[in-house]
Backbone:
């Protein structure tokens, strides 16, 4: 999918503190890109990714996906857009402990107008593709970290999204499992998805065809000059 981000600003206000998490962030993403977002802790990476994934709203600025201004969607349209066209992967997997793996992966499909048979087939396909079909009836705590992240990726791809967002997807994994997750993301990218990933890892960044460096809420050209 193609994204246009224009003059995005995000301010968090608590009773005593005002934090400008993003300050005038603008960039475009071509269809089929693989982008890495990098920068020091607290610079606004997760805030940016959450806005791109429609999990949060900017304070001001514009965000267009395939030319459509997503701020103009109503709540139901927004949920359908998020569940039907965007896959989100988190550092800490964010699986629901009370649900088995199959039900976790089914979750985004509950918001889509698909037949029960189609939903079931998609869940089975996603589990098979991520190599966790034998764990369908298990609960998240019964799986290793690598398996949990593969289940989380299955949940992210079950709607066959054009956009995959990943916030430090290898951050809680050892090197071997991290590499496997990167190979899976790379495969999804080769199959046509646009991928935007936050990472601290130089190794993971080598999979990207472009790196966006954030510093203190702004995009910077050469981050080494700032640190
Ligand atoms: P990163 O992912 O790069 O580590 P974040 O996007 O999580 O950074 O945070 C950017 C800044 O915004 C930080 O100063 C953080 O403390 C602040 N922040 C993030 N989320 C919230 C929130 N919900 N309420 C208040 N401040 C927040
Ligand atoms: Mg973060």
Residues:
């Amino acid at each position: 999918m193609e994204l246009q981000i224009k003059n995005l600003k995000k301010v968090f206000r608590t009773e005593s503190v005002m934090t400008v998490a993003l300050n005038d962030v603008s960039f475009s993403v071509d269809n089929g890109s693989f982008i890495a977002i990098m920068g020091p802790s607290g610079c606004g990476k997760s805030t940016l990714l959450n806005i791109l994934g429609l999990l949060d709203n900017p304070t001001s600025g514009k965000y267009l996906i395939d030319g459509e201004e997503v701020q103009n969607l109503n709540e139901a349209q927004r949920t359908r857009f998020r569940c039907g066209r965007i896959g989100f992967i988190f550092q800490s997997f964010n699986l629901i402990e009370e649900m088995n793996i199959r039900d976790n992966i089914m979750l985004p499909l509950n918001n889509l107008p698909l037949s029960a048979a189609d939903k079931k087939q998609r869940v089975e396909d996603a589990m098979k593709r991520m190599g966790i079909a034998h764990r369908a009836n298990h609960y998240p705590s019964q799986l290793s970290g690598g398996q949990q992240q593969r289940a989380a990726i299955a949940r992210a791809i079950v709607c066959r999204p054009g956009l995959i967002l990943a916030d430090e997807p290898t951050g809680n994994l050892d090197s071997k499992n991290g590499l496997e997750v990167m190979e899976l993301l790379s495969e999804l990218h080769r199959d046509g998805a646009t991928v935007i990933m936050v990472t601290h890892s130089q190794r993971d960044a080598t999979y990207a065809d472009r790196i966006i460096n954030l510093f203190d809420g702004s995009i910077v050209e050469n981050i080494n000059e700032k640190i």
The pocket of adenosine-5'-diphosphate (ligand 1) is lined by residues 12, 14, 19, 21, 41-47 (CB under 6 Å). The mean pLDDT is 95. The longest helix spans residues 175-190.
